[in-house]
Amino acid sequence: MTGVFSFAIQMNHWDYIAPKWLDIMWKTEPSIATRVISDYSDPLMAQLRDGHIDMAILYRPIHQPNIHIEQLMDDKLILVATEPRTLEMGRVDGYVFVDWGDEFRAQHNLAFPKAYIPKISFGVATSALNHILKNGGSGYFIEGSVKNMLEDKTLFVVENSPTFHRPTYLGYPSAAPESKLHRAAIRALRKIIH
User: Fold this and answer.
1) I need a surface site. Which of 21, 75, 127, 132 has the fewest CB within 10 A?
2) pTM score
3) Is the Cβ–Cβ distance between 10 and 59 less than 8 Å?
């Protein structure tokens, strides 16, 4: 191994970014050891600031000297269900609240002002998705993460439901683009995103 690269991913992006990114890095940079971790944005931002990781996907970046922050993508959150249905208001059996953060909670509260406290909520989208796939129900998920399940009719978009947007950011040391390894890691990430 000629080097090590540490890539951190906000938890809700792990499943559909990490495996693809690793595949590309293994093929394009076979002599580089990769370390991929997942956590929430605040701890990842602290690790990036302190130099413990090389690059991070974040929801809530905090601008710091010597850290470059750029918007990576704009996640579209859609309401999906295990059965075809239209939007219902009030208490909905099987609805699982996925906590996508402060901005999502505010948007959700505006769209559903009379919503009841959900019977179950999750901080990690994968756990919420596994729950509704096993037990039936509905919840908001990143469109790209459920695309295959929509295509094979495992999940259905809830008709007439509002969509929400969640910006996602990429952070890395400002001097990173000078590094061949950082350029390769960013290229691999952009290939997945686009």
Assistant:
1) 127
2) 0.81
3) yes
